[in-house]
Amino acid sequence: MDSLTLDPLSHAEGDVQLPGSKSLSNRLLLLAALAEGETRITNLLDSDDVRHMLNALQLLGVDYTLSDDRRSCTVKGTGKPFRTDQALELFLGNAGTAMRPLCAALCLGQGDFTLTGEPRMSERPIRDLVDALRPLGAEVTYLKEEGYPPLTLHAQGLRGGTVSIRGNISSQFLTALLMAAPLANGDLTIDVEGELVSKPYIDITLHSMQLFGIKVDNENYARFFIRGNQTYRSPGEVMVEGDASSASYFLAAAAIAGGKVRVYGVGADSVQGDKAFAEVLGKMGAQVTYGPTWIEVSRGSHLKGVDLDLNAIPDAAMTIATTALFAEGPTAIRNVYNWRVKETDRLSAMATELRKVGASVVEGEDFIEITPPARLTPASIDTYDDHRMAMCFSLAAFGDAAITINDPGCTRKTFPEYFDLFRQITR
Ligand SMILES: O=C(O)C1=C[C@@H](OP(=O)(O)O)[C@@H](O)[C@H](O)C1
Ligand SMILES: C=C(OP(=O)(O)O)C(=O)O
């Protein structure tokens, strides 16, 4: 297996232009495909997750043109749900933002669609979404294990009504239902059952729908109302913000090492919940400044451990776990049960790899507590085909010990050029 050894680092300094947000790229592509009119999307992310969405749209007959660098895309919207006469199979890798939204959107149309992915995708739940779609007329067959992809949709449109959807495992189920709802054949009321996790991602969804002309009534994230028989309308041109989760590694580098790092593309005006990551660094003692479209971090006082519920920022929260290696005292990251159903079981993977560098770790069912070692141990870090494991552990190289990252190429899921940019701002 390929690996990358990072020699000990001591300084972080510079500006980073962030690649486009994964969450926005995949939402905007899907909505542009369903919308009436042509949409030019700029600053699109070019990574595996987005390529899977683009490939699926191509197989669905959507006409789009990508620029040579694949960072802008002009999509000719169909103005209506997808149809197929021949059964279609769509391979979606391990992209939750393709699998879940397409599952709901395809049910709006006509024909048989099979959704498959990488082996890990068959371990990532989808039952809560399917259970909400079935009462609306969706016919879904699980091809392997009940409740998990791969699955076949026998699409024949969706009707309106009132449905409940469980919110405690993934917000992507609600996102998927919300994005499909305006094209259903009747008005839809959605009741969210139980706790809604990763709530700020719903704001990204509502924002994206609004860009395409659709307003959703949101009663405190517990009940949503969407009129049926509507049409998405292209806004013409839309620019994807920089990815706020990708920003976390660079900002954390500055907090740990001193120096000053500014990321461009996400700032105070961002719609992405992960911009709040910088506030967590602030609570740990870093100096944080926000502009409308940038965030700058430099090291303030000595970093100190925190004890926080980070359910709202599950992706960026992983970066806090490795930042904790450089803080005084223990850090607890709470209410992150769904780390277990993402690219890997992230609670278990994080605990295992943090122990390799010498940390004492308590792994709970839905939390992790990290007590940093006096001095980090050189280690070879396994990444479990999880881009965020690879990116988070690059920060461990600030600990006076060489860190080897196994399979660094796994960052291709959301950030293929990560290690090049990381190298540019560190020494
Ligand atoms: O809707 C989205 O774009 C996402 C929602 C989150 O997932 P969950 O809602 O499953 O926590 C997040 O972890 C994922 O990377 C992207
Ligand atoms: C959980 C993630 O991805 P997905 O969109 O596949 O859920 C992630 O990017 O950390």
Major sheet attributes: 4 strands, mixed
Quaternary structure type: single chain
Number of strand elements: 23
**Can you tell me the CATH architecture of the largest domain?**
Alpha-beta prism
Instruction: Give me the CATH fold name of the largest domain.
Output: UDP-n-acetylglucosamine1-carboxyvinyl-transferase, Chain
Number of helices: 12
Give the count of structural domains. Answer: 2
| Computed Rg | 21 Å
**Spatial strand arrangement across the major sheet:** 2-15-17-16
Q: Helix proportion of residues, in percent?
A: 25-40%
Q: What would you call the structural class?
A: alpha/beta
Task: Give a summary of the structure in a few sentences.
One of its GO terms (biological process) is chorismate biosynthetic process. The protein is α/β, with parallel strands linked by helices and 427 residues long. 29% of the residues lie in helices and 24% in strands.
Describe, in plain words, how this protein is organized in 3D.
The chain has two domains: 3-18 and 242-425, Enolpyruvate transferase domain (UDP-n-acetylglucosamine1-carboxyvinyl-transferase, Chain, Alpha-beta prism); 22-224, Enolpyruvate transferase domain (UDP-n-acetylglucosamine1-carboxyvinyl-transferase, Chain). α1 runs parallel beside α3 (96-107) and α4 (127-133) runs parallel beside α5 (172-180). The strands form six sheets. Strands 2-15-17-16 form a four-stranded mixed sheet, with helices on one face. The chain has a four-stranded mixed sheet with strand order 4-5-3-14, with helices on one face. Strands 6-7-9-8 form a four-stranded mixed sheet, with helices on one face. It is an alpha/beta fold and 427 residues long. 29% of the residues lie in helices and 24% in strands. Bound molecules: shikimate-3-phosphate (S3P) and phosphoenolpyruvate. Shikimate-3-phosphate (S3P) binds at residues 23, 96-97, 170-172, 175, 197-198, 201, 314-315, 338. It catalyses: 3-phosphoshikimate + phosphoenolpyruvate = 5-O-(1-carboxyvinyl)-3-phosphoshikimate + phosphate. Its EC number is 2.5.1.19.
